[in-house]
Amino acid sequence: MKFRFGEGAEGTLNTSVTTAMIDQEKRAADLKRRKNQMLLFGGATLATLASCRLTARGISSRRYIPKMFQANHMPPQSDMVKEAAMAVVFATTMALSSFSMVVFGVAWSQDVTSLKQFALKMKTKLGAQQIEDEIRNAPMTPETQDLQDQLAGALKKD
Predict the structure, then answer these.
(1) 143 belongs to a structural domain
(2) How confident is the model at residue 158 (pLDDT cuts 50, 70, 90)?
(3) 36 within domain boundaries
(4) Scanning 12, 99, 128, 142, which has its CA 20 to 30 A from the CA of 84?
(5) Is residue 86 within 8 Å of residue 93, measured between CB atoms?
(6) Residue 113 per-residue DSSP state
(7) 39 in a domain, yes or no?
(8) Domain range enclosing 62
(9) Is residue 136 part of a domain?
């Protein structure tokens, strides 16, 4: 197949044109992934704002404000089990939405797409990879070698 624009010596597409097309596809995929991460972070932020607003409304509606000539040292009777359950619900929704906002925000800002990639980035940033390599390459003590040989022998007998 011959092309007029971008022809090489044999009449095929020039490699720079195909490389540019591949780069453009990578950029489009990267843009789509970043947009998805942004939308996840935005959704988690909206969930956090909604849960905070509901919690504030729930707290303010339960406040006891006595009217004139009412005793302010004896609030009206209420169902303590219901109050405790609502407190747990409010705290849980706020904690989960805040945690999800932090997770999606870090993933978006650090360009993390999977848990495996997150683990690798954290290992490199915290220096755990060097420590693992040192431990892996450390010489084995005679006691450890003897124990390893005994365990290997016991497992071979079975």
Answers:
(1) no
(2) low
(3) yes
(4) 99
(5) no
(6) -
(7) yes
(8) 15-114
(9) no
